[in-house]
Amino acid sequence: MSDRADIEILTEQERRLVFASLNEEDAFLIGSALKTRADAQNAPIVIDVSLFDRRLFYFARPGSTCDNEDWVRRKVNLVRRLHKSSYRIGKELAAAGTTLADRNLAATDYAAAGGSFPIRLANAGVIGTVTISGLPQREDHNWVASAIAAHMAIDISDIALP
To answer: Which CA distances in Å does 162 have to 84, 94, 137, 138, 152?
Structure first.
């Protein structure tokens, strides 16, 4: 699948996966769903659900490392800055033949790799992120988008990335 085709799908996922509201319980349920899946698959991931002013859920599975935690930090920074999923941003950069450095965004603070999805509230905008790190970036993105969609009871099978 081309970067452009992926960008269309990612944009539609972000358009559909908008929260009417989000509270601490929602964050716990989304994070717990990701943990349950990771436990079942023995996936060495870090899971983070955060608002821009505080962390609501965090878990590091066995096999994950401090590098995964740093990837989470950098992906969150990017979503916080640009209000798009980190995977979409990476695909947009690739399609444009540009890099984060070309946009004056240092790799020490930002990562255009899949796995961080914006928590967007209807009528409020982006207020936080759901993020994982530890799998290949497309899988990181798919896991997060699937967990959010399941929590919202929204079927995104027609716009799932293969």
So the answer is: 20, 18, 13, 9, 21
| pLDDT of residue 1 exceeding 90 | no
- What is 17-71 written as a DSSP string? --BS---HHHHHHHHHHHHHHHHHHT---EEEEEETTEEEEEEE-TT--HHHHHH
Element (H, E) at 4: helix 3-16
Model confidence over 134-148: pLDDT tens digits? 999 999 999 999 999
How far is 150 from 132, CA to CA, in rounded Å?
A: 16
Non-local CB neighbours of 162 within 8 Å, separated by 6+ positions: 1
| Residue indicated by tokens 């079927």 | 155
**Whole-angstrom distance between the N-terminal and C-terminal Cα of the chain?**
8
